[in-house]
Amino acid sequence: MSKPDQHQLRQYLRLYLVMGSVNCTQPPEEVLTSAITGGITLFQFREKGVGALTGQAYYQLAESLQQICREHKIPFIVNDDIELAIALDADGIHVGQEDIPADQIRARLGQNKMIGVSAHSVAEARQAIQDGADYLGIGPIYPTTSKADAEAVQGTRTITALKNHQIHIPLVGIGGIHADNAEPILTAGADGIAVISAIAGQNNVEQATERLNTLTKHFIANQKQ
């Protein structure tokens, strides 16, 4: 898959599933397949936390999930692991503030891969853009139990601040988001929402995804009118 332009990337960010095996109540392959059927637009493999797979099992799960994404033309992003991204020829990588800077990642991955960077302030956003980030993950918007080392909850204020400072790079909100609290994030100016437990942790993954898909599609359609 070739690297998307900014318009395509905004479309991909609309409903972004982030997950690994520890986030799932069902086999990860089944969860991802159901989520794709329900309407996710982008997928990030994030295998972290208590009980996370390592070694060959980690690689095999990533490879299996990537194959499902390829079959359905969903971009496959790797969280934080540049060696895995290279080994799998992933569509991109997402890193946090404590990880390798985007310019160093770009030097290794080349120009045709997506790079997402988590940012929690205007200064961090500007640095990420200068380093070559393609999009920014902003959060945690709401309290979350999916990330043990999450930053302080910030609501939508960082998204608003970025818009007020004329920062127009694609943005996705993340952290504690579900169907009942997603709309303020889109209203603030994010191009989409990234979720973990709101999809991966649900008993009926397809139904949960469809609800989020309908909500985000409806909101963005109304914004264009």
Automatic annotation (TrEMBL):
Keyword Metal-binding appears in the UniProt entry: yes
GO biological-process terms attached to the record: thiamine biosynthetic process; thiamine diphosphate biosynthetic process
Cofactor(s) the protein needs: Mg(2+)
Enzyme Commission identifier(s): 2.5.1.3
Pfam families in the cross-refs: TMP-TENI
EC category: transferase
Annotated pathway: Cofactor biosynthesis; thiamine diphosphate biosynthesis; thiamine phosphate from 4-amino-2-methyl-5-diphosphomethylpyrimidine and 4-methyl-5-(2-phosphoethyl)-thiazole: step 1/1
Residues involved in 4-amino-2-methyl-5-(diphosphooxymethyl)pyrimidine binding: Q44, F45, R46, E47, K48, N79, S118, K147
Family note: Belongs to the thiamine-phosphate synthase family.
HAMAP family (alphabetical): TMP_synthase
Function: Condenses 4-methyl-5-(beta-hydroxyethyl)thiazole monophosphate (THZ-P) and 2-methyl-4-amino-5-hydroxymethyl pyrimidine pyrophosphate (HMP-PP) to form thiamine monophosphate (TMP).
Protein name: Thiamine-phosphate synthase
Species for this entry: Paenibacillus nuruki
Recorded name of the encoding gene: thiE
